[in-house]
Amino acid sequence: MILGDGDMVTHQVDVNASRANLILISIIVCPSLATLVVLLRVYTRFILLKAPAIDDAFILLALVSSLIIPKLTHTDMLKGFFYCDVLNPRAR
Fold first, then answer.
1. Which of 27, 26, 64, 65 lies closest to 42, judged by CA?
2. How far apart are CA 31 and CA 37, in angstroms?
3. More exposed terminus of the chain, fewer Cβ within 10 Å: N or C?
4. What whole-number distance in Å separates Cα of residue 18 and Cα of residue 79?
5. Four-point Cα dihedral 39, 40, 41, 46, nearest 10
6. What is the pLDDT of residues 28-47, one digit of tens each?
């Protein structure tokens, strides 16, 4: 696009726009995909192959801890605050 003298391109940017919905979608989609993949792996190892190993226990432990620890250290992103409720529960 060629602009002549005096031509201006302006963009309306809402500085107060919240990205909470995008964050919420990623918070739901990523752990859901991880859970699906781990459950398919466990199903394959336990049911189809009938050969579970110690790494299956560790991957289940990792999945459970990745789903529980964010709840214990809750980050309040929807209000724009980033702090841990566990470390400072009276910060609100």
1. 64
2. 10
3. N
4. 9
5. 80
6. 899 999 999 999 999 999 99
- Would you state the structure tokens that stand for residue 62, as one six-digit string? 């990792």
For the chain, how long is the longest CA-to-CA vector? 74
Give the separation between CA 29 and CA 44, rounded to whole angstroms: 23
Residue 85 in tokens: 């409720």
pLDDT in tens, 60-84: 999 999 888 777 666 555 555 554 5
CA angle 79, 81, 84 (to 5 degrees): 125
b/e sequence 49-81, b meaning 16+ C-beta within 10 Å: eeeeeeebeebeeebeeeeeeeeeeeeeeeeee
CA Rg value for the chain: 23
